[in-house]
Amino acid sequence: MREQNTSTAGKSLPAISFQNVSKTYRGGQFRALDGVSFDIGQGEFFGLLGPNGAGKTSLISILAGLAQASGGQVSVLGADVVKDYAAARRQLGIVPQELVFDPFFSVRESLRIQSGYFGVRNNEAWIDELLHELGLSDKANANMRQLSGGMKRRVLVAQALVHRPPVIVLDEPTAGVDVELRQTLWQFIARLNREGHTVLLTTHYLEEAEALCGRLAMLKQGRIVALDRTSDLLKGRAASMLRFKTDAALPEVLLPQARITGRIVQIKAHDAAEVEQVLATLRAAHCPVEDLEIGRADLEDVFLEIMQGEARPQAQTQAQVQEGVAA
Ligand SMILES: Nc1ncnc2c1ncn2[C@@H]1O[C@H](COP(=O)(O)OP(=O)(O)OP(=O)(O)O)[C@@H](O)[C@H]1O
Predict the structure, then answer these.
(1) DSSP string over 174-219
(2) The whole model's pTM is what?
(3) I want to staple 81 with a disulfide (CB 3.0 to 4.6 A). Which of 88, 101, 104, 321 is the partner?
(4) Which of 22, 26, 57 to mutate to test the pocket of ligand 1 (most atoms within 8 A of CB)?
(5) CATH homologous superfamily for 2-234+310-322?
(6) Is 57 in the pocket of ligand 1 (CB under 6 A)?
(7) Where does the ABC transporter domain start and stop, copy by copy (predicted)?
(8) Assembly ipTM
């Protein structure tokens, strides 16, 4: 797919470019996006993360041409999503969050219709491959109404890819789907990414984002608060996590830095001295601990740290963002 991607003056275009994008609702009273600027390079596997209401869907809807920005510009491989909508839309394969489908057609028919929509003819070989890769071959002639929720989601993925778009956008594709579909989906999307397709993923499954995405942006209340390579985000934050089980109440002094799930407690520590300090506090409070282990902080820890605003915000200038893509 790379050969489709145009270059100007030797510098390759970003796959997606968000420039100072804002979005207001309720007659301008509520600002859901506030000056969002970043580029996604061609061939990247990029993750967009943020808590509920951060503005992810608003940003994706503007990218898809389903909503209009209140300010700023968005382009896909150089095509402006408003002024050059048809060209921008052709470059995009969007897997929506909601299960929208036409109940009157079979799976194969719906893929043929979608091919026709993008003006792609003689597409049977690719449709067969999509059906095979997404485990839908035996459902090709089934009516959309007869499919389970997970199967419908597979069809949505196939529909998004039917015109072989260079840029693939997945908005919460694994919400509520079983392990088998996740694995099938990620193997296929990772293959397409290796072949040169750019992938933009929004997800609440942080372990998926950590495993798949080379770079991540985190949105909080409509602003970018972190934008970096996944490995650098993990390196730059709390280095270690103490994990243990306890039935006792934690000493109050540890509560602000603890993540408690039932009996399991996780406390972050930046270095060995901090680990020792936490253990000493637990001992002094006679708090019995079981199954103590010290592990590396994961993306969930980093995400929580950034969202709780304990760490310095990492909003970057456009120049820094460009640098990140080029590096
Ligand atoms: N049509 C609308 N009218 C008014 N407010 C809206 C509208 N759409 C979204 N919002 C508000 O804008 C903010 C951002 O919403 P958005 O759906 O973009 O967030 P999100 O990051 O996708 O959240 P989630 O993870 O829950 O899907 C929220 O506060 C939401 O309530």
Answers:
(1) TTT--HHHHHHHHHHHHHHHHTT-EEEEE-S-HHHHHHH-SEEEEE
(2) 0.81
(3) 88
(4) 57
(5) P-loop containing nucleotide triphosphate hydrolases (3.40.50.300)
(6) yes
(7) 16-246
(8) 0.96
